[in-house]
Amino acid sequence: MERKQSNIHYAWWILVGLCIIIGVSKGALNNSASLFLTPVSNELGIGMGNLSLYLSISAIVTLVFLPFAGKLVAKYDIRMLIIIAIILQAGSFVAFSFMNSVWGWYIFALPLAVGGTFITVILGPVLINQWFKKRSGLALGILAATGGVIGAIVQPIVGKTIVSEGWRFSYVAVGVSAIIFVIIATVVFIKKMSKEKGLYPYGTGDTEGGDQSANNAATDKGVTLANAKKSSAFYALLTFFFLITAIASFMMHIPTYIVTKGFSQEFAGSAMGVYMLGVVFASLIIGVLNDKIGTKNTTILSMILGMASIFIFLYAASSSVMIFVALILFAFVTSGIGIIAPSLTSSLFGNKEYGQIYSTVSLGLAIASIVAIPAYGYIFQFTGSYSGGLYTILAMLAINIVAVIIAYKGKEKLEKAGLWN
C-alpha cells in the first residue's frame, strides 16, 4: 500500500492505524477504568481514595518513563513498541481481575502506566508531527474524535457487562479485546517512512510540488529545547499541561459522582457513553476552530465552556438531561489534552525539536495525575461530596486562561530575540 500506488497519501493510513490503536488504548482502556472504581470499592471494601491511588502510582511511573518514551520511537521499530505497550497496558487489566487486595492495583499500575504512556501520550502527537507537515490539526482532531467514537461504543457495553457479568469478567474481556484489536491495526497500518518506497510526510516533496528539502526546511522551524526551557512560554505551557490534566482527571470520578446524585451504575455507564460522544463533537469543533480562529482563542473558549460544565455539575446535577449537557461541555476541556496541548506546543515552539519539547512539557500531565486523581477521591472519602473538587476546578480553568496569554507573550519575546528560526 505504498503512496505511489494510491491516490490516498499513506499518512492518512497511518492516521487510520493511530485512530484504532489510540482509540482502543484510551477510549476502551483508560476511560473505562473509572467504571470499575465503584464496584471494586464496594465488593472488596476498599476506600475510594485508597483505590484511586493506583492511578497516582501510574502517574508517577509515567513521570519517570516520559523522558525515554520519545527517544524509543526514533531508536526502535515502532510496531514492536506498540505491541509491547498494549500487552503491558491491557495485560494489566486482565491481571486486575484476579486481585483481592488493593496492593494488586498498586503493583500492576506499573506496566499499565508504561504501556499507556507510550500509546496514549507520545505515539499520536509524535507520529502525526512526523507524517503531517500540513493539516496536522485536522489529523489530531480526527484522532481525538475517533477515540470518542470508540469510547462511546465501549463505555455503555462495559457498564452493562460489569452489572451483568461482574467486574472481574469485564476486566478480562476489555483487556484481551484491546490486545487483539491493537496488534491487528499495528501490523496492517503502521509503517516507517521510506524514501525508497515513496513514504514521505504529507505536505512535502512530490505531493505538494517543489523541492522536498526546501519544504522540509520550511516546516522544521522553531525553538530548540534548550532555548525553550529558558522562556516564560515554556513554564506557562507546563502550567497549562499540569492544570488541564488535573481538571480532566475528574473524569475518572464522574461515574461515582453521578451515582452519589441518586442515579444507577448502569445510568453512569450510559452517561459516560454520552460523554464520549461529546468528545467526538468537541474534537471536531476544536479542530475546525483551531484552523479558523487560532490555537490561542480556541483554548480560551474551551476553558470557558469547561467553566459552564462545572457550574451545571454543582447546581443542576439532579437532572439527567443537565448531566448529559455538562458532560458534553466538559468534553471541550478533556479533548484539549489530545488536540490543544500538541497544537499549543507546535504554535509556541515550532517543529525544530517538537518531540523533545512535547515530551518534556508532558511531564505536567503526569505530575497532575499524581496529585489530582487521588485528591478528588480523598475529598469524596472524607467529606462525602465532590463539591470542593469542583470549585477547585473552576479556579484552575481561570488560571489556564491566564497561562495561555502569558505563553504567547513569551513566544513574542523568543521571536524578538531571534531564537525562533
From TrEMBL:
Principal localization reads membrane
What's the protein's topology in the membrane? Multi-pass membrane protein
The Major facilitator superfamily (MFS) profile domain is annotated at 11-415
Q: Which PROSITE patterns match?
A: MFS
Q: Which GO terms describe its cellular component?
A: plasma membrane
Alphabetical UniProt keywords? Membrane, Transmembrane, Transmembrane helix, Transport
Membrane-crossing residue ranges in chain numbering: 12-29, 49-68, 80-99, 105-126, 138-157, 169-190, 234-255, 267-288, 300-317, 323-345, 357-377, 389-408
Q: Which Pfam families match?
A: MFS_1
Q: What SUPFAM superfamilies does the entry give?
A: MFS general substrate transporter (SSF103473)
- UniProt KW Nucleus keyword: no
Please verify whether the record's keywords include Transmembrane helix.
yes
Q: Where in the cell is it found?
A: Cell membrane
User: What GO molecular function annotations does the UniProt record carry, in alphabetical order?
Assistant: transmembrane transporter activity
Name of the featured protein: Oxalate/formate antiporter family transporter
Question: What organism is this sequence from?
Answer: Solibacillus isronensis B3W22
